[in-house]
Amino acid sequence: MQKIFINIKSLLKAERKNKTKICGEDMKNIGVIDNAFLIIEDDKILDFGKMKDFELKNYNKNAEIINLKGKQYILPAFVDSHTHIVYAGSREAEFVDKINGLTYEEIAKRGGGILNSAKLLHNTSEDELYEQAKKRIYEVMRLGTGAVEIKSGYGLNTEDEIKMLKVIKRLKEMTPITIVPTFLAAHAVPPEYKGKQTEFVDMVINEMIPIVASMELADYIDVFCDKGFFTVEDTERILTAGMKYGFRPKIHANELDYSGGVQVGVKYNALSVDHLEYLGDEEINALKDTETMPTILPGTAFFLGLPYSPARKMIQAGLPVAMASDYNPGSSPSGNMKFIMSMACSKYKLLPNEALNAVTSNTAYAIGLSETHGSITTGKVASFIVTKEMPSFDFFPYSFGSGLIDKVYINGELID
Ligand code: NIG
Ligand code: FE
Q1: Is domain 2-76+376-414 given the CATH code 3.40.1390.10 in the classification?
Q2: Which residue has the least CA distance to atom 12 on ligand 1?
Q3: Strand 384-389 and strand 405-410: pairing?
Q4: What is the average pLDDT score of the chain?
Q5: How far is CA 333 from the centre of its chain?
Q6: Predicted local distance difference test score (pLDDT) of residue 108
Q7: Counting atoms of ligand 1 from 1, which one is nearest the CA of 329?
Q8: Is residue 73 pLDDT above 90, yes or no?
Q9: pLDDT, mean of residues 148-155
Q10: C-beta of 329 in contact with ligand 1 (< 6 A)
Q11: What architecture is the 79-366 domain classified under in CATH?
């Protein structure tokens, strides 16, 4: 089935030649075709170009034609390369605790935070967990996300981690969005291992990793390498073990301190290092000329009042920058990638074009989807956003509280 979009005000990130990661100065550039057409066939992008070159006779006569009347934009769907969308319940009581002055770390220390979510998850059936997560998946699709990474990590024991990963697998099979599963092997030390962190890491290595690998439930491995959580040594041990089973690392690094997480991620050729609220020259230098995508999570810095990563400095150093939502119940209870773009502009001083590259091509790279997602390129999946009528593309991140998304197509399917 073909669908033909005509009289598109501008087609954004229309890139004939696929770019994988977009670095430094180049982040300012996006392919733009004004007064454009776009043709999709089933779940793929078939063709696009300028209206003046469009000839209807070249396409299927039964194609559905959608006329945007020169008023609406089309841009690729967001790729959200870091989320924890599968979780049980919510943690708004901790939100109030934070308003009353407690920090994220203080809440974690007294058994709240990740441990709170782990308890809730333990007491929730797999079916109920699936239903809760499915709602969030539909929510983010309507907000324009076409591909999402989902981490485990609220299990903290083998059985509950597998429960989470099975829910992720089911979501992947049952919903139109593209899902990339990551095994977040070490997220927090559970109460039964209190004071025995090394033994917990041993259990992750000897029991969890081999089982998750044998069940083929994840593509990547993650560790929360930070102050009060897992050390660089723990991280090295877990990554080494995971890599033996074919898991490439993508890690949580430098959210709470200069943890050494960035350097250890780079050392093990992580596909991405994520968070980066604490990022100095040493970390920037470590990231230069590597295959590791620095990924900033603006929602977390916003919600927890953490420092905003020096994104401009990173770009000036020639690095690529990706930005994802970190959708989770504790530090970023939102998967709104348009809001992430607005934050990219207002708080991190990215230009709208840079922000768009940060939430599409660069996040696609960060979950191994460069060949299929992140731009309007022939052969890629037909996952894109049709905006409402707007005066310019800059208006999109500028109007941070307005939806501005008229329709979302995910793998060729209109989401309603
Ligand atoms: O990315 N930092 C570690 N993990 C999540 C938060 C998890 C939680 O608080 O539930 C994050 O911020
Ligand atoms: Fe996270």
Answers
A1: no
A2: 331
A3: antiparallel
A4: 97
A5: 13
A6: 87
A7: 10
A8: yes
A9: 98
A10: yes
A11: Alpha-Beta Barrel (3.20)
